[in-house]
Design a protein that fits this description.
single chain; alpha/beta; 2 domains; two-stranded antiparallel sheet; 49% helix; elongated; binds iron/sulfur cluster
Length: 421
């Protein structure tokens, strides 16, 4: 039997508690199973267990078989000196601490249906292992699990924001600007956009923020996309301006070949995205601080509704005239930026500054953004789990990626219901 199910049964006290005895026949009373340890060392810390007439406080180690104790070298490892009980599925030998003292062992018994349910889940090949059973789990229960999943997702995103803050002297505006730029790459060009932002500090853009043409010159020049033969007045002037500005600020452009156009719709071409990004910088200042001051959906949407320069209204590339089309950032793109950049940043900021109201506000923003729409969310819908907002969709994406795909059902609250029913 897998150790993970034994851990699960012990942690959730699902074992058969009456007539609990060690392999020596001494009575066992579990007062506290201890705290589950996911790091190195014994599996549970600070358990309280009465064995015979003695009350013990210490650690618990769990293995499939007794002989695993020696196989894992715990008999010669000081970290296991305070183990008070060795829990096993199969007791096939004695186990000892480093000083030679024998450790009591308990063969864990638990209801057969839990083991059967677990085996079924682990061996299931459907889209998610509990596909046939999830409909039986009450929706109110799933809703509270979504909140935990969402918080977990935002906490995971916090670590990359913290790294960026460390790299940028805890400068929130700079870190936000780099992440926002990355988001403007919309997957295909995210890496290139991030490199562009890292090569061009926001302080330099700030010096020219009132002049959209100069912002375009800086951004297009740094992107390397001007390193081609340019064939119209606008792009030639743009390059001239960049030549002047790059010498002034001692800038070196990134490699323009990393931008991808293949299989992209023209609206997603990096040229259009850079023009939109320039327009955003032009129409705003201290963007992140303003979001912290006024984190409401209407205001946030208005910030990102910015219009690129006239040239880009009838161009997707340099020197290729196309039909006139509004190139403002579309609403779906704005929602994507709010979900993937704005909300995680607000959440992280609120967490670090200890402002619970702002943290709650970040989560509430997701409730006001429509659900994302992709194959995973369609899969959930077919199982009866619909997404009313980005709050739901983000939680369900987290569940699929970090639990279902990894068969992490023992850590999943839906899994708990399925296993114990
Ligand atoms: S992780 Fe949870 S939701 Fe996913 S298959 Fe397992 S029990 Fe079901």
């Amino acid at each position: 039997m897998k150790e993970s199910i034994l851990h699960y049964v012990w942690q959730h006290k699902l074992f058969t508690a009456h007539n609990l005895c060690t392999t020596d026949g001494e009575e066992v009373e579990v007062i506290d199973v201890g705290k589950y340890n996911t790091d190195a060392g014994p599996d549970f810390f600070n358990a309280k267990i009465r064995i015979g007439n003695t009350l013990w406080a210490g650690n618990v180690e769990i293995h499939s078989r007794s002989t695993d104790w020696k196989k894992h070298n715990h008999h010669s490892d000081k970290a296991y000196d305070s183990v008070i009980l060795h829990i096993v599925d199969m007791a096939d030998g004695d186990v000892f601490r480093i000083d030679g003292a024998r450790i009591p062992q308990l063969k864990l018994e638990f209801p057969k249906h839990i083991e059967n349910n677990y085996e079924q889940l682990i061996n299931e090949q459907k889209w998610i292992p509990c596909a046939d059973k999830i409909a039986q789990v009450p929706s109110i229960f799933i809703q509270s699990w979504k909140t935990a999943l969402l918080t977990e997702r935002l906490e995971q995103k916090m670590s990359s924001i913290e790294n960026l803050l460390d790299e940028n002297n805890q400068h929130w505006e700079e870190a936000f600007y780099i992440t926002l730029a990355r988001n403007f790459g919309f997957g295909t060009n995210s890496q290139a956009f991030e490199s562009l932002a890292k090569s061009l500090p926001i302080s330099i853009l700030g010096k020219h923020k009132d002049n959209l043409f100069q912002l375009e010159a800086l951004l297009f020049g740094q992107s390397g996309l001007l390193n081609i033969e340019l064939a119209d007045d606008y792009s030639i002037k743009l390059k001239q301006e960049y030549t002047f500005l790059s010498a002034k600020f001692e800038l070196r452009n990134i490699n323009g070949e990393q931008w991808k156009l293949l299989r992209l719709r023209p609206d997603n071409f990096p040229h259009v995205r850079i023009a939109q990004f320039a327009a955003l910088i032009h129409s705003s200042s201290k963007l992140f601080s303003k979001m912290v001051e006024n984190p409401n959906i209407k205001y946030l949407k208005s910030i990102f509704t910015c219009k690129p320069s006239d040239y880009w209204q009838n161009h997707y590339l340099f020197a290729h005239v196309s039909a006139e089309k509004n190139k403002n950032l579309g609403i779906q793109s704005i929602y994507g930026i709010l979900i993937n950049t704005v909300v995680p940043f607000l959440f992280c900021y609120a967490h670090k500054k200890g402002v619970q109201a702002l943290k709650d506000n970040a989560l509430q923003l997701l409730e006001q953004i429509p659900s994302e729409n992709n194959a995973i969310l369609t899969g959930w819908k077919q199982l009866g789990l619909t997404s009313e907002s980005a709050y739901d969709s983000q939680a369900l994406l987290q569940l699929k990626k970090h639990y279902c795909d990894e068969k992490n059902c023992l850590r999943c609250r839906i899994g708990h219901k399925v296993l114990t029913n």
